[in-house]
Amino acid sequence: MSCWMPGCPALGVCRGLAALPITCLERAKDLKTRLGILLHKPELGHRIGTSSKLQLGSRQRDSSREVLEWRESFDQLLKSKSGVTAFHTFLKTEFSEENLDFWLACEDFKKTRSKTKLASKANRIFEEFVQSEAPREVNIDHETREITRKNLSGATSACFNEAQAKTRTLMEKDSYPRFLKSASYQDMTKQATSRGINKRSHT
């Protein structure tokens, strides 16, 4: 504490501390140490740890239920962030992740409000996914490709609707059933089911 200024209120405090016997200062330090030990008692740590475990358990139950919901419908899978991630990982093994990436790009595109950004994003998506021999060309028919190309001249949030719908149908009918049968998803459902059984056995 600075007390160099004349008349500083801290000056009296500093003089008062200096006048205290050393034993008083040592006792104060000892008291401070004991308070520190009390604040870090194992019981407190145990309570905090228990709270964390309860929160983690709740999250695990939610994620377990979510994993099992993915098999109810393709929509349920696409609604789940972790579901989309798991499906994307599976599509990579089949070298067809561009279908999901295109679908996600279209979803993001629909949220664009600026007309200038809408046009530039539309061209970028078309060049990356839709045009013939695009770097990540999606599997759509020639007619849908041409319709999408024409839509670019007056880009709106709906200009990829037909191409997106075709890609979604392809994933739902082809990739999604294989994902549900895949070893990775089967392992996830087993873990989710076992967590559900453990939860019931502890209640």
UniProtKB/TrEMBL annotation:
Main location: membrane
Alphabetical keyword list: GTPase activation, Lipoprotein, Membrane, Palmitate, Phosphoprotein, Signal, Signal transduction inhibitor
GO CC field: membrane
Cellular localisation: Membrane
A molecular-function term among this protein's GO annotations: GTPase activator activity
Pfam families linked to this entry: RGS
InterPro entries per UniProt: RGS, RGS_sf, RGS_subdom1/3, RGS_subdomain_2
GO biological process, one term: negative regulation of signal transduction
Protein name from the UniProt record: Regulator of G-protein signaling 16
